[in-house]
Amino acid sequence: MASSAPGQDVAMIENQTPPPIPTEELKYGGFTRFEIELEFVQSLSSPFYLNHLASQKYFENPAFIAYLKYLQYFAQPPYLKYLTYPGPTLNNLELLQQEKFRTDILSPDVVAKLVDEMIKAGIEWPERK
Question: The whole model's pTM is what?
Answer without folding.
Answer: 0.77
